[in-house]
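User: Hi! Is it possible to get a structure for several chains at once, not just one? Here's what I have:
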Amino acid sequence: MSLVTDKLVPSPKLEKPVEAPEATDKSRSLIQISNFDFFYGDKQALFDINMDIVEKEVTAFIGPSGCGKSTLLRCINRMNDLIDIARIGGGEISVNGVDIYDERVDTIELRKRVGMVFQKSNPFPKSIYENVVYGLRIQGINRKSVLDETVERCLKGAALWEEVKDRLDTSGLSLSGGQQQRLCIARALAVEPDILLMDEPCSALDPVATAKVEELIHSLKERYTIVIVTHNMQQAARVSDKTAFFYLGKLIEMNATDQIFMSPEKEQTEAYISGRFG
Amino acid sequence: MKRYFHEELEAVRSHLMLMGEKAVESVNLAMQALLESDLEIASRVIEGDDAIDAIETQIDDEVARYVSLRAPVARDLRLLFVAVKASHDLERVGDEATSIASRMRKILAHGSPIEEFGRVPRMCELAVHMLGDALSSFIQEDETLAYTIVQRDKEVDSLNRENFKAFVELMKLNPDNVNACTEMVFISKSLERIADHAKNIAEEVYFLLTTNSLKEVVKTEQE
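Assistant: Yes, the chains can be modeled jointly so their relative placement is included. Here is the combined structure:
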């Protein structure tokens, strides 16, 4: 994977993966966050975050509102670049060994590799088919056989194909909330990302639709590295392999999910998952 | 909709069934060792108890993990409670089988061969049958079968009382019988407890299937 533009060659610094102190499995670490500080204006939102995110696993970010979990998620594909007052105070986020905040990194390429699914499903006011192939069309790919294959592959990947295969030309907005969210996941898959970031993807869904998306997340981790922000601790417990607990902008504890939910090391983690605060 | 983690629930269920099979086998072997004065079989029973204990530990771990991570409710949650309680009963069944095997070794160590078994073989037959049916009621989800097991416990209790009287009489007749008969009284008590554990499992299965307490149902019927 190359995140830098063709004209640039990564510096020696970029070629060497950053050593993250809290690594759980460095050999399979795809995202490395080290000593990362982040600000909105004068207000510091993230403090000295260090973590490794292992490939082809689901990592859940949990914590009370305002703890910085969504901020960190959006930093992984530089979505925060779109906020004027947002700035990095220090540290680094590397994807596949490349510092994504290096000035030579192509953010469009980065966001192709690091796809995102949002809290509220946001299909375009286009047909189901066009929603899925949107990313390909803006890359100039218009060959029908390629687009057809992509639509079928991605809708199958998003566990939506059987429900919509006979009405691909109807509007994406005509689908139910859960179907719309899976359509957005299919759209994210179409550009063949390595990483999927999910910001509370089930918060607007009913339990059945939530279960379908959770099943989808479970199946997608065979091919993708997934980072999910959720307020629903039971969901984090059900879908993730690793869980990171944040509080007041700090990473309090990150560990295997069963460890976090059965015997967390930190008192703050235990108090939060037991519902004693937050 | 079947969820990916429901396989973990199936694993708990199959481990409980495996534990049940091992416990029944252990009781049968202990009785065989007693009736045939076979020290080799008695040793197998005693050595096999660790395997039963290990399954109980495994079930405890699986249930703790499932409760922590999967937020089970309703029937799934009842199944997990039942698994913990029933596996503890089965662990105790394994201990009672071990106790029977140990007492049989003590009788032979005293040099007094066992000649009088009283109603012990019949008790064992009933207790094992109750245990087998308790497990079947779980596997087949049959609350009617679970209900009948509770009624059958009274017969085992009655046989235990008969044994006590008979073995005490034998001790009175000849002091040389004291060692063997004392052990036989305890063996009879072990079988009575095995039947109690079978009854407990039946009650747990009945709760799993109906959400009602079988004790309360029986009490209401008697009133």
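The mean pLDDT of chain B is 94. DSSP finds seven helices and no strands in chain B.

User: Great, thank you!
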